[in-house]
């Protein structure tokens, strides 16, 4: 037991020196910095946390902020790794906590339903861990409520891809065609050479001038 304590203390010591926030208590709202959602629908604002040292009576809070308002949407406490969050205050009935904090899921995402255009703004997920001397951390995600989801970007990308693909295809076709044409030309030239050689050979044996063939024919007919 003494050994494990010394290891964690070393880790903590290193953590304080290197990246005190990211090495111990981490908060993540996923990769997307902006989430788009349609008015009237529901959206999950993701948030998970992790701590190398475990947690006890961890305090969590979701807050909303736009240019002129700041309000706490929901906050509460997670007693330990075996319990789900206990909500202390909730600002809005449209908010629920569908995730679980049991079994290392540490999921304190909120589901925001019946979205209104005024829900557009910054959402911050904040976590404080008494077990780590009240170390805290937070992550922010931007929600944009729209009346319909545009997929213009996608179409533009597809068009660009199609054009690039078409151009490359065309180039390949041109190259192939060029190869084919030079191949055919070479072949016909070779054939012509063969013809010339063979015809000159014939000429030699048959003493032929251009008119000789016409003279040749009557004897075969007879
Ligand atoms: C969303 O907003 C649009 C434009 O204001 C409106 O026509 C539509 O009915 C709204 N949808 C819902 C589900 O509220
Ligand atoms: C809310 O957002 C504004 C603009 O980004 C920022 O200046 C302000 O500090 C934020 N307020 C809080 C309480 O986070
Ligand atoms: C958190 O929980 C919600 C609801 O169950 C789920 O949809 C979401 O995928 C979970 N997020 C993570 C990162 O596990």
UniProtKB/TrEMBL annotation:
PANTHER family: MYELIN P0 RELATED, SODIUM CHANNEL SUBUNIT BETA-4. Pfam families: V-set (PF07686). Residues 213-222 have a biased composition (Basic and acidic residues). The keyword Transmembrane helix applies. This is Sodium channel subunit beta-4 isoform X2. Residues 192-222 are annotated as: Disordered. The chain crosses the membrane at residues 12-29, 156-177. Residues 20-136 form the Ig-like domain. It comes from Mesocricetus auratus. Residues 197-207 have a biased composition (Polar residues). One of its GO terms (biological process) is monoatomic ion transmembrane transport. Signal peptide: none annotated. It comes from the Eukaryota. SUPFAM superfamilies: Immunoglobulin. It is a single-pass type I membrane protein. It is found in: Membrane. InterPro entries: Ig-like_dom, Ig-like_dom_sf, Ig-like_fold, Ig_sub, Ig_V-set, Myelin_P0-rel. Keywords: Disulfide bond, Glycoprotein, Immunoglobulin domain, Ion channel, Ion transport, Membrane, Signal, Transmembrane, Transmembrane helix, Transport. PROSITE patterns: IG_LIKE.
């Amino acid at each position: 037991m003494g050994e494990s304590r010394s290891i964690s203390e070393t880790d903590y010591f290193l953590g304080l020196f290197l990246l005190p926030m990211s090495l111990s208590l981490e908060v993540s709202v996923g990769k997307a910095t902006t989430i788009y959602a349609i008015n009237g629908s529901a959206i999950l604002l993701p948030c998970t946390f992790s701590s190398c040292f475990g947690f006890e009576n961890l305090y969590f809070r979701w807050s909303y902020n736009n240019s002129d308002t700041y309000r706490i949407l929901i906050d509460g406490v997670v007693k330990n790794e075996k319990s789900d969050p206990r909500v202390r205050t909730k600002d809005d009935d449209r908010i629920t906590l569908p995730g679980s904090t049991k079994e290392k899921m540490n999921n304190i995402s909120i589901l925001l339903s019946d979205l209104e255009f005024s829900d557009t703004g910054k959402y911050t997920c904040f976590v404080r861990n008494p077990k780590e001397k009240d170390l805290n951390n937070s992550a922010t995600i931007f929600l944009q409520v729209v009346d319909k989801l545009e997929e213009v970007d996608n179409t533009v990308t597809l068009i660009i891809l199609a054009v690039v693909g078409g151009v490359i295809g065309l180039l390949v076709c041109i190259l192939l065609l060029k190869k084919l044409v030079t191949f055919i030309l070479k072949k016909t030239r070779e054939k012509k050479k063969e013809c010339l050689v063979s015809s000159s050979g014939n000429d030699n044996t048959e003493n032929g001038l251009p008119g000789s063939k016409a003279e040749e024919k009557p004897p075969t007919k007879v």
